[in-house]
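Hey team,

Filing this mostly as a record. A colleague (T.K.) asked me to run one chain through the structure pipeline before their review meeting, and I want the input and output archived in the tracker in case anyone asks later how it was produced. No errors, nothing strange. Just documentation.

Input sequence:
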Amino acid sequence: INATTSAAISRAIGMAEVDPAKSVPAICVAAAPSAICPQPMIPAAVPAACGRTLTAPPIGLAYLAGSLKSAGIAYQIVDAVGENLDQILPLDYCDGYSIGLSMDEIVARIDPRSDIVALSCMFSSSWPYDHRLIAKIRARFPKVRIVVGGEHATACADYILQTCPQVDVCVRGE
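Output structure:
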């Protein structure tokens, strides 16, 4: 990720360049919780058995935040895992769980003055969760531009754009 990322996103979604002098978040970047639908061989109680949660820091968010900061663009980060590592919630669409903030907690943390909400979707296995989260974000913020990045967006951009009309832009190969 380099300092031109935000300008490229702005051009891709047809916005004017984001004003670096804007004092409110121009961009809200969110990392969804770790959503795990276990395979038959992997029990849903892995965190309890291990005595800790199995998560990794969202390094992509750190890179993007650094680029936005260098460009002088106001931003907000919602690290849905890091903000509530001990919360483990059952999923309603599979026999699995999520680690971190609930969808409603994530949506509540997004500054309503944001122009863009960017989400990181690293794994195709988390796409069912991310799709539902994006729908909630769109329902709450109908005019915000929603951008999806990460490995899933790189591998499946066409699929995301065809099956999730709430997404405005997929960032590939970042």
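Quick notes for T.K.: The chain has a mean pLDDT of 75. Strands lie at 27-31, 34-36, 75-79, 88-90, 97-99, 116-120, 145-149, 169-170.
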